[in-house]
Amino acid sequence: MFPKIIKLILAFFTIAFSVYQFYEGSVGNGIFLLLICGMFILLYYKNEFILLAFFQLRKQNFEGTLKWLNRISNPEQNLVVKQQGYFNYLHGIILSQTNLTKAEKYFKKAIELGMSMDTDLAMANLSLAGIYMQKRRKREATLLLNKAKKLDSQGMLVGQIKEMKQQMKRI
Q: Which of 31, 45, 108, 139 is deepest in the core (most CB within 10 A)?
């Protein structure tokens, strides 16, 4: 993993060399170098290890997800704020299988830092509401469910929110 500043420096030099290639008449090389520059810029905003951790999570491979997340050393310095949110979100998902107290801490931090998609933020609120429900903290869970409902503009979590509200009525 390259630090953030190295990715930007590589992108700058790739653009400069691409412009030189266009000037020399090598249009194909210039276009290819622009694509490589796009990869560096993409990896500035989307950390490669977080992307690989999401792929492992999609396969329900929690050990593989944790392996990729552990490769990120010092996330406060090496990740953009939104990436730190996803880093904590993924840790929260993994720990929600075993340790609810630590998962609660990670979900709170992920919500505090924010994420780039409102649906992901709604899912983090929903997960934290589930943890609060299991700990019998009904008021906080209700607030988080309402917040998740507001953030879910596409309606992807409507069924899960309704189900959690029904479960809260039983408490």
A: 108
* Distance in angstroms (rounded) separating the CA atoms of residues 162 and 71: 37
pTM of the model: 0.80
Contacts 24+ apart (CB under 8 A), 101-107: 103/127, 103/131, 104/128, 104/131, 104/132, 107/131
All CATH 1.25.40.10 domain ranges of the chain, comma separated, are: 47-170
CATH code of the domain made up of 47-170:
1.25.40.10
Q: What is the 3-class SS of the chain, one letter each residue?
A: CCCHHHHHHHHHHHHHHHHHHHHHCCHHHHHHHHHHHHHHHHHHHCCHHHHHHHHHHHCCCHHHHHHHHHCCCCHHHHCCHHHHHHHHHHHHHHHCCCCHHHHHHHHHHHHHHCCCCHHHHHHHHHHHHHHHHHCCCHHHHHHHHHHHHHHCCCCCCHHHHHHHHHHHHHC
Residues 75-100: tens digit of each pLDDT:
888 788 889 999 999 999 999 888 88
